[in-house]
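ok so for the tutorial part 2 we go from a plain amino acid sequence to predicted structure tokens. step 1 is just haveing the sequence, like this:
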Amino acid sequence: MGFEPLEARLLLAHTADAEILPMRFADLAGAVTRYVGEVQKLADSEREEGRKLKGLLDAGAFRLAGDPQVTYLAPTAPGDVPRLDFRALVDASAHLRRSALAYDAAFEWCAGTDFLLPSGEVSELNALLQGVEQALTSKAGLPGRDWYQHMLYAPGLYTGYGVKTLPGVRESIEEKQWKLAEEQAVRVGKVLENAGEKIQSAAAAIGQGAP
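step 2 — the prediction. this is what the tokens look like for a chain of 211 residues:
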């Protein structure tokens, strides 16, 4: 969602005056948890739809319902949809959420006290915070379009500018490329793990200033 000009100026001013970058991560972690649930549900739906279609074909439902005066082709029998292994993705999402909650709590505590971190530690903390977004990218890019390197969001292959979340995993499932979907789940899991580590390190850096 974009900002109106006044909102953007206020946000920029607030950030410019802040000693520590005013960033929170619970919303990000919550969104990622939701996206992971969505791709799991999508895979389950593909499996169930394939099972139903196979049952109809085996029962000759399309032949029985067809018009004998009209030539038509019945749907192709689908292959079995495997149960995809999303453990790396689920575990990394949980790690990201724990790290995000820890950092947000530490930041709130810091904001309510008068202690100041040494300038060198502030610079290190801000560098960690700025690196979180970059940690959500992969140099390998997305399947078939390596110029898109963000693993959480990208324009869909067939949706114009319509955004896809967890695009590498989601589009692999939609295209019924099951092995690729699992490979992408591992890659995205690694990206989320890296982002969680940076956020966890940022939480620890704030904690160093506690009395």
